[in-house]
Amino acid sequence: ISFEAHNLTVPSVMWLGLLPSDLQRVPEESLIPLTQRDKSKLTSLLKRPYLACQPIWYKEIEIMQQSETKAEIQFLASIAPDFLSHVYLPNKLRYGGWI
């Protein structure tokens, strides 16, 4: 499949969903501590050359490193069963809450 790699590249990606900066508004009991593997991945990501062109992504990864927490998007269902599909994502799309 490596010979097809050039056909599988994505020219641009948008990060939609829970951003590390969003987690400041998440109840603490919904936060999950980062594992050592998570921390290693974040360190590795920060070393990738393409992040030099993505300062907002870089900042979000730094926020995640500093907070040492993450959250699963499924926690939004604990607010209301349709919160993700009827409130959270529509607002992200309407107000440009992606990077």
UniProtKB/TrEMBL annotation:
Its main location: nucleus. InterPro entries: Meiotic_Spo11 (IPR013048), Spo11/TopoVI_A (IPR002815), Spo11/TopoVI_A_sf (IPR036078), TOPRIM_Topo6A/Spo11 (IPR034136). It is found in: Nucleus. Keywords: Nucleus. GO terms for molecular function: DNA binding; DNA topoisomerase type II (double strand cut, ATP-hydrolyzing) activity. It holds the Pfam family TOP6A-Spo11_Toprim. Gene3D superfamilies: 3.40.1360.10. Transmembrane segments: none annotated. GO terms for cellular component: nuclear chromosome. GO terms for biological process: meiotic DNA double-strand break formation; meiotic DNA double-strand break processing; reciprocal meiotic recombination. Residues 2-93 form the Topoisomerase 6 subunit A/Spo11 TOPRIM domain. This is Topoisomerase 6 subunit A/Spo11 TOPRIM domain-containing protein.
